[in-house]
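The following record pairs a protein chain with its ligand, 9MR.
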Amino acid sequence: MNRRAALALPVVALPAQAQPNLAPLRQQARAFGRAFGAAIRSEILAQDADYARLFATEAEILVPEWEGKWEALQPTEGTFDLAPLRSIITAAHGHHQRVRGHALVWHNAMPEWLPRRLADGASAARAALETHFNTILPATRQAIRDWDVINEPIANAPGADNPQAGPNPLRESPWFRALGPDYIEHALRLARSLDPTLRLTLNEYGIEEATPDAEIKRNRLLALLRRLLDRGTPLDALGIQAHLQLRRPFDAQHFGRFLAEIRSMGLAIIITELDVREADQLPPDITARDNAVAQRVREFCSTATQAGCRTIITWGLTDRHSWLTQDRDVARRDNIPTRGLPFDTELRRKPMWHALAGVLSG
Ligand code: 9MR
């Protein structure tokens, strides 16, 4: 689609059924120099043809929801299995899509052996990191030009929600315990040395909303980024996960100032895992619920694009398969499935889709 055709697209949110011919998000974003992507799961890709078609049509970027984590890539120490990740790469190539890597250093989705190895001390931890990077980065070099090298390094704020939290601004993960705060710099330098043109991203959650806890996390993150950059650590982008929650307030101006600060450091901004958890008290009907989700997405994403963010990735595409309903810790207590992604369980476009279309082509 050319730019003129994209410009002619209506940006107001009308019911999806009324606009069957609107171009997919992928095309709408591309016409405006932006990119839309989504996290995908290889086992569903293999089983659900409609799901596969939806990703092929709507997403420019695919992110492996699980297949790029240690648990998937190195289930046994020294034995690598890239088959699930390769199935996503193959699908992406078939549809001229890009793949983002997620995640090289994280405290979750570790194979059972890894925490034990990290507990053996700094040199064992460094060796494990090097073996993993030395294998994965060259093997995926052709297909993946952007990796979340560091995922979720900031500790959550201490407080009522998190009584265990200590004063350390960095999360005391197995990596931190083995290597100290320098594990972040070490991993970023290693990635850069193995692949000098790879885009290196540090990805974080809980930094979006207007709560005291998010403010503490933002300040901790800014301090970490300043320290890394002052030391000449290679880093290209901040990934903002954006698992938004409607029960929390959002302040566009305040968040915009935070993004401007990130940009002033010379870092790109990527929205990496967007989805929306609905309010505790749900609005009366599905339309009102979907509009509330769309409204937050519109406000949040337009703040990000105004600050120069050019890439928006949702954590899944459809409510049919979403960690928001499948993860027991985040699923609603009343068991009502959350409608926090752009497509419903029948793969129909929802107001959130229209909100994204409006922002990406706005
Ligand atoms: O959605 C992902 C879920 O399917 C996996 O089981 C889980 C553990 O690997 O990770 C989930 O994705 C997380 C992402 O990797 C990092 N940010 C938070 C995401 C939701 O938990």
